[in-house]
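(Deposited chain)
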Amino acid sequence: MIIKLTLAGALLASGIGLMAPLAIAAQGDDTCVVTPTETLPAGCQAPAVNTGTLPGAEEAVARALRLVGSHGYYQLCARLAAHIWGRAHSGYYSAAVQWHQMVRTGRAHRSDRQPPVGALLFWDTGGPYGHVAVYVGNGQIVSNDIGDGIPGEGGVYRVAFDLIESKWGASYLGWAPPIYHSS
C-alpha cells in the first residue's frame, strides 16, 4: 500500500505545521490525504463518518428512555449514566475523574461531536465534578437536572446534545465508551 503523505510530512518537517485536519480515504491500494478544502481525487472515497452504535447500546438506550421522567438523580450524573449501562454505580468519584481516566487510557475522543449511540458525553461545568450524559442518537442525550423546575429535583430528561452548553455554560470535552470498574 502506498501512503500519500508527502505534503503533510513536508509541512510538518518544515515547521509550518498543518492548519486543518486531514481527510484520509482509500483509493484502491493507495491512501489519499487531503485537507477539508480540497476535493477528493477521482477514485477516492470519503472517510466514513462515525455514526455507529456501541455494543450493548440498544439495551442501554432502552433503559435510558425508560428512566426519562423519573427523579432522584440530583447531581448524580455519573450514577445515572452507570444505571443506563446496567451498572449499580460508576466506580468513579465524579464525571470529571471518569473523563480524566478515559483521557489517561487513550479512550477519550476529545471534542468529537459525532459520538456513536450509547457513548458517554462529558462536559466541564467549571466545578470539580463535571457532567456526563448518554448519547441516544439523533442529536439527543439523556441527562439529569437539566430540565428541573425545582432545584434538587434530580429529574431525568431527553434533551438536545447542545443544551448542556447553552443552558449551563458548560464546555463540551468529548465522548468515551462506557468503561466501568468491576463491581
In short: DSSP finds five helices and nine strands in the chain. Strands lie at 2-3, 23-27, 30-34, 109-110, 120-124, 131-137, 140-144, 156-160, 171-176. The first strand starts at residue 2 and ends at 3.
